[in-house]
Amino acid sequence: MAYTVHDPEAFFAAIVARLISSTGKPIGLAEAPADTTYPYAVVYPLRDESSEGSLEDPTEMVVWAWQVTCVSDGPGGAQVMQRLARIALNGHIPVVAGVGTTPIEMPDGSGILPDNAARPTLFYSTDRFQCFTSV
Amino acid sequence: MARSTAKVDASQVEGFARRLALASQLIEEEGEQFEELWGGRWVDEMVATVPRDSGHLADSIEQVEPGGITFGDAFYWQFLEKGTARMAPRPFVAPAMKRIRTPARKDAGERAVKLIQRGR
What is the span of the domain harbouring residue A29? Predict the structure, then answer.
């Protein structure tokens, strides 16, 4: 097997692709998607919470961590998006060339929160997910 | 039928009870020192990395009791940590904890070994 270095871009692109194909909703990476029809979700890589393992060493295990912020103009829409994202990700094994990954876990789930700074008020959730990569 | 009897030396039981009480006190003191030390380091890590605007949030983070952290009136720490509907998260609480977790675990293990050695 040819090993490759850990590639955050390829990994998070795979997460976004999985969410798009499974939920059928607009998904953005680190910013809102071009189509902001509600509900939508944004994948935010949490780079500070990823493993201290070396990204350059393909034999080291690395933890990928990210947040999925689900957004809608009503609490029900945000909850639907959150549920779809959880179904899409929990237990899913991302396919990334050259590395093996464990099933995705959700160590930190959130409720639906109002964003009162937005006009009109928006509702969102902030579930956090992670998985390990190894060779 | 003969009855069996046994003599119990009450002083041994009392001595064991005293040692147990002493061990409990030592563990409590050690635990408090541990929480105070690593609570302080958690605060230091957060203050060093928290996103700064006015500096009010950084100034508000403090340890109010061993292991007990407060953000004072800077309620908006949670908006930075988790983001909002239209703002990206800029986490500083969990990453700070992650940075001290491994050395804190090591310290806890070393303290436990020392306690066991002192108890002998």
Answer: 8-52+60-134
